TrEMBL record:
The keyword Manganese applies. Keywords: Hydrolase, Manganese, Metal-binding. The keyword Repeat does not apply. Its cofactor is Mn(2+). The lineage of its organism: Bacteria, Pseudomonadati, Pseudomonadota, Betaproteobacteria, Rhodocyclales. One of its GO terms (molecular function) is metal ion binding. The Mn(2+) ion enhances activity. It holds the Pfam family Peptidase_M20. This is Hippurate hydrolase. Residues 185-272 form the Peptidase M20 dimerisation domain. Mn(2+) binds at residues 101, 103, 136, 162, 359. GO terms for biological process: diaminopimelate biosynthetic process. It comes from Aromatoleum tolulyticum.
């Protein structure tokens, strides 16, 4: 049986598996059922299994031939704290939790690749199948690195894949350089002097200062960055006051910053602090800025991006796009790329209509793309670990 026939044969079972995972979503670092399902399936294939990396992560090890070359393939397993609004048979059975980003599909496609490669070990070296917890904002990738991922499983490079609604099924997007942005957070506390709402002259208004700060922060990107440097500064929360007739003594702003380089992150952080100081001085309040770095930018390395584009382009029925703009969304695969060369690609999930977009309560992974994802992983292993 050829690889193509094996993938076709596996498709119905993989679809059922994907829907089972979708029906039983688990949040960051709580992926116990999913991790055990992954581990047992790998063991049934004869793949060496290591549990518990980064908390609930699983690593499968498949060796063929005698080469010492090794690569890593990563899928994420966690779900999101969203109440699902679908009504199909595999809808989430856990209230307030759903696979709204397709990690159920990512896990399934990598398991499918492990199954195909275990039957057709047409490569020379070691493939590490990395099933990662807690991608959704909790930094599971960093946790796996801290837990010795690259020390225990020495790989030359690492690769990731994410479904992309709006990109037609059968298409892949590969970026040479930035593909996803950084994700920093800030909290700004404004302290004034409270007063009666009818006697504002007796206090210093934290709300007025906060409003001025929100407005001035809109100039960070438009007036302090090079126009060719893409970035986003968004104030997403404004908390102040509890009564109609009281000017509160404190207000708090929260928000996110996105960028594609550390230099831009540095510039934005310094500018937000400077603006805070200026607003404080002009409004007679005190301003305290707490700026926290989160996920770094996800930046593909050139050689690996070129290889991945070639691999995706070689798949029957597939098409590769190399000119799509990167996304201001963030991805903790970036932590791996701080240590190893690699590439993170997008696989088309089909039309993003009717609410079928990432992090939407009506989202569902497109099972029709499973064969494309499995074939991509299999061919990537064969290209990077070729037989002599």
């Amino acid at each position: 049986m050829s690889v193509t026939e094996k993938i076709r044969q596996c498709h119905p079972a993989l679809t059922a598996l994907r829907r089972d995972i979708h029906a039983h979503p688990e949040l960051a670092f709580e992926e116990h059922r999913t991790a055990e399902l992954v581990a047992r399936r790998l063991e049934a294939l004869g793949v060496e299994v290591h549990r518990g990396l980064g908390g609930t992560g699983v690593v499968g090890v498949l060796k063929a031939g005698r080469s010492l070359r090794a690569i890593g393939l990563r899928a994420d397993m966690d779900a999101l704290p969203i109440q699902e609004r679908n009504d199909f048979a595999h809808v989430s059975q856990h209230a307030g939790c759903m696979h709204a980003c397709g990690h159920d599909g990512h896990t399934t496609m990598l398991l499918g690749a492990a199954e195909v490669l275990s039957v057709h070990p047409d490569f020379d070296g070691t493939a590490y199948f990395i099933f990662q917890p807690a991608e959704e904002g909790e930094g599971g990738a960093d946790a796996m690195v801290d837990d010795g991922l690259f020390d225990r499983f020495p790989m030359a490079s690492i690769f990731g894949m994410h479904n992309w609604p709006g990109l037609p099924a059968g298409q892949f997007a590969v970026h040479d350089g930035p593909v996803m942005a950084s994700a920093d957070r800030f909290d700004i506390e404004i302290r004034g002097q409270g007063a009666h709402g009818a006697m504002p002259h007796l206090g210093t208004d934290s709300i007025i200062a906060g409003a001025a700060l929100v407005q001035t922060l809109q100039t960070v990107v438009s007036r302090t960055l090079d126009p060719l440097d893409s970035a986003v500064v968004s104030v997403t929360q404004f908390h102040a006051g509890e009564a109609y007739n009281v000017i509160p003594d404190r207000a708090k702003l929260c928000g996110t910053v996105r960028a594609f380089s550390a230099a831009v992150q540095d510039r934005i952080e310094a500018t937000i602090s400077r603006i805070g100081e200026g607003v404080a001085a002009s409004h007679g309040v005190s301003v305290e800025v707490d700026y926290r770095r989160g996920y770094p930018p996800t930046i593909n390395t050139a050689d690996e991006a070129a290889l991945c584009a070639a691999v995706a382009g070689s798949l029957p029925g597939a098409r590769v796009l190399t000119d799509l703009p990167p996304s201001m969304g963030a991805e903790d695969f970036a932590f791996y790329l701080r240590h190893k060369p690699g590439c993170y690609v997008w696989i088309g999930n089909g039309p993003g209509e009717g609410g079928c977009t990432l992090h939407n309560p009506h989202y569902d992974f497109n099972d029709a793309i499973i064969p494309f994802g499995v074939a991509y992983w299999v061919e990537l292993v064969r290209r990077l670990l070729p037989k002599a």
